[in-house]
Structure formats: structure tokens, C-alpha cells
Amino acid sequence: MSGGFSLGFLTRVYQPAFNRKVYHETLELFKAAEALEFDCGWVAQHHFASEQGRLPSPLVLLAAIAQATRRIRLGSGVIVLPQEPPLRLAEDASVLDLLSGGRLELGLGAGFDPATFSAFGGEHARRHQDYDDHLQRLYSALSDRPLNAAGARLQPRTAGLGQRLWEATSRVEAVAARGNGLIMAPNPQLPSEAAGPWLQRYRQAWPAQQPTRPRAAWVQAVFPEQYPDREDSTLRRDILAYAQLQRHIGVYQGPLDDDISVLLKRLGVLHGSSQAIIDVLGEGPRLGVGDHWVVQVQTASTSLRDAIRALETFRERIAPVLGWRPRGAQGSPLATEH
């Protein structure tokens, strides 16, 4: 992993049973991350508490976060685009971008949970086709193109949001052709070394005439100083429950009766000492200027205090060794003792 990348975090707004404090705690997590000089925070969308995620409306929560923060960039990771009216999404995103001073990073995906598609009256089998259709409509709105025969255009307008779109998909050449950022994460169906070639394909497909440069966001679950081989480990319990849910909806197809360390490796979940995590990340995708390293430090049972502590550990002991520097820092990466 090379230097110069931005440092971010992702929260899936997990909670075993719904309590409205999860939204207030997510806001506090963003404030803490900003104080720690993280560059970006991302929230995931889940409908009907899929995977125990409690946030169906990412832009609403990000609007509240925008008013409680000043610098940290605000990402959706991701909004399920086939289930969204694209023009309404463009309007909401534009208002949020204006409220936040141009800090929105709009991440999009096709979705995977069949139950949510049926609830929205859509077809799971058509999700990629619907995604492409909705993306084109969204991009037309954000690009100030006429949206009907009368020449209606998006209001309000916000400068540059159309150049801050991100896509989570394996169709990396299409993402590059559109000039959008690529969101990547470990895929349990593929070997860990597959990420590098995917990223290389994306960069090689980037059009020479694009005024911006290719940008990738690598998302990975990292739990420093946690040891799930212990029987009383909440990480162990939560990961097993997560894998069972993923298997139920067909996303995860591996066995569940392996040693927990095998399952964690298959899912790309890093844990243990800071040095052990650094050793693995050093062999991961090569990230540079314009790219984002995005750490997920929460499972369904993680408290706000423990999540903040994990962000602190990553920021102080791991990210500087990998080449990250706080915005505005000069010279070599921060010196950190281990």
C-alpha cells in the first residue's frame, strides 16, 4: 500500500435491536473521527434492518452530520440505486452537498438482497439493468442537462457533485469509462490477491481525456487488539451471525463450521496486534493520491466507545506506517512507536 491516500471509515449503523440512539451515536462517531483527522466517513444503506443495519435513509443522517462537523467528507457507501427515483435522489443529494459545503461523496450500488427488491416492487434479476438506467438519469440531472421537453433542469444545482460519484461493482471498465470512483472490498468468493488485478484493470481503462484521475476506495473490516479465537469474543459471535445472514441470502457461499480464523480470512476481516494488521495491509492493493483507505471497525455489538478507540488505534499506530499523513502535514509520515 503506497502513500498519499485519504483515510476514511465506514459505519453500517449496526444494532442488534433498533434504538434511536444509534443515529445519535453515529453522529458522535463522525465528530470523533473528524477530531482524529480522518478525511472521510461513509454510511451504508440497509432497508428493513437487513444485516442488522438500521439506516434506510443515508442522506438524511448525513445532513444532520453535516451540521455537526466542518471538514470531514461525507460518503454514502452505498445507496441502492435501483430502489431510488434518480431525480429525487439528485435533488436530495444536491441539497445535502450545499448544506455541507461540497463535502458529499455519492456512492452507489446495485444491491443484493432479494427481499428488499420485492418490497420496493422491483425485480432482483433486473437490478443491473435498472441500475444503469437510473445512473444515466441521475448523471443527466447532476450534469445540468434538460430533463424533459420543456427544458426542466435540476434545482438546486451544486458544483462538481457529478464528478464525485462512486460505484461498488465488479464492472470496473464501465466505472472507469464513466469517470467515477471505484469502491472495492474483499470478496469471500475470490482469493485475496484478486483485488490488485481488479484495481489495475480499472486504472488501465480510465479514459485519457478524463479531466480527473482514477480513484479507488478500499473498504476493509479491521479490529485492532481483538482476538476472536476466545470463546467470549463478541467479534467472534457477531461475525458468525453475519456470515449466517449472508449465507441465507446467497451472498456468502462458504462453510460456517471452519475454525473462526479461516472464516475471518475468507471474509477479509483483520484482527489482532497492530503490527499483524500492518503486515497484511502492506500486501494489499496499492493506494495513492486520490484513493481512500476506508476502515470498518464495528460489528452489531460494538459500543460507541470501542468504535472510537479502534479509530484512534488505527489512526495512531497503523495508518501512518502505511503512508497516510493528516491533511496539510508536511514531510514524511508520522513517526509512531510499536
Would you kindly provide a brief summary of this structure?
The protein is α/β, with parallel strands linked by helices and 338 residues long. The protein contains eleven helices and nine strands.
**Which architecture does the CATH hierarchy give at level 2?**
Alpha-Beta Barrel
Percentage of β-strand residues: 5-15%
> How does the major sheet shape up?
8 strands, parallel, barrel
* Topology, number of strands: 9
What Rg, in angstroms, do the CA atoms define?
19 Å
Helix fraction, binned, reads 25-40%
Shape: globular
Low-confidence stretches: 330-338
User: CATH topology, anyone?
Assistant: TIM Barrel
**Helical segment tally?**
11
SSE series: EHEHEHEHHEHEHEHHEHEH
User: Overall pLDDT, averaged?
Assistant: 92
So, the CATH homologous superfamily? Answer: Luciferase-like domain
Distance between the termini: 19 Å
Strand order of the largest sheet: 1-2-3-4-5-6-7-9
Number of individual domains: 1
Q: Class in CATH?
A: Alpha Beta
- Class from secondary-structure proportions: alpha/beta
